[in-house]
Write a structure and sequence with these properties.
Length: 277
């Protein structure tokens, strides 16, 4: 039985072109209708761009308090890159703005660059087209207005980076697997890899395959989750509140017992001293 008010955690395979917030809105709307309530906290742990797919963690009710903890998990991605061209957003959200030579790049060059420059602790400047805050405003809102955006570099950890596919020398394409820390922008990683190879690069596809111990094959589609929320038994708001109050009462009783035991222990330690006087 689901208890969305007390808190549930759902793992969703986010579809292409959906924003993470759109997934949250769908889940929230379905739960509010099913429970017949006007408000319910629902949030996600770790944004995925609209052009990315894969593991998205959605929390409800009091489980939203765990979002920061869930975001901290190690993440794994499969990224496809186009070499020899850049875009302002570092992916296909924007059009190509510059082209570069790529014929000098070899598979061996890519592998050594990934190993020597993009493994371990690195510094990364997040994309201008990102949710990073500039004077309290998301950077992407400023970037879309054509304004200059300056973002400080962040320290990240790349645990693993592996070349999976290489289209060279026929095609300037490659695919990599990246295992990294919270806050890593794979779009920015594509930019930096292109520059390190003496060229340019941007993402053409991105899939998050793991967060912590949760892999994409354990995730539900949005449609399957919405169907589950429509049919599965749920704890009613009244019952959820009763259970919460009972837990609080039991916690208070346990605290009272603990305080009483501590007081009795202090009294026992004082009595011998009084008898010695």
């Amino acid at each position: 039985m689901l208890n969305p008010i007390e808190g549930e955690i759902f793992y969703i395979d986010k579809p292409l072109k959906w924003t993470s917030f759109e997934v949250v809105k769908k889940v929230r709307a379905r739960l509010r209708k099913r429970l017949d309530i006007k408000s319910l906290r629902v949030g996600h742990a770790g944004t995925l761009d609209p052009l990315a797919t894969g593991v998205l963690t959605v929390c409800t009710g009091r489980a939203t308090k765990r979002i920061e903890q869930l975001q901290a998990g190690v993440k794994e991605y499969i990224a496809h890159l186009q070499l020899g061209a850049t875009t302002p957003s570092f992916d296909l959200e924007t059009q190509v703005d510059a082209t570069f030579p790529w014929q000098h790049i070899t598979r061996e060059m890519i592998e050594s660059t990934l190993r020597e420059q993009f493994t371990g602790t690195i510094e990364q400047v997040p994309p201008a087209f990102s949710a990073c805050k500039i004077d309290g405003k998301p950077a992407y809102k400023l970037a879309r207005k054509g304004r200059e955006v300056e973002i400080r570099a962040k320290t990240l950890v790349i645990d693993e980076i592996e070349l999976l596919e290489c289209g060279l020398p026929q095609q300037p394409t490659m695919a990599i697997r990246v295992v990294c820390s919270k806050g890593t922008y794979i779009r920015a990683l594509a930019r930096d890899i292109g520059q390190a190879l003496g060229s340019g690069a941007h993402l053409t596809a991105l899939r998050r395959t793991r967060i912590g111990d949760v892999t994409v094959d354990q995730c539900m589609s949005v449609d399957d989750l919405l169907a589950k929320l429509e049919t599965e038994d749920m704890v009613s708001p009244d019952r959820a509140e009763q259970e919460r109050l009972e837990r609080e009462r039991e916690a208070n009783r346990a605290r009272a017992r603990q305080l009483k035991a501590q007081q009795q222990a202090r009294e026992r330690t004082r009595k011998p001293r009084q008898s010695q006087l």
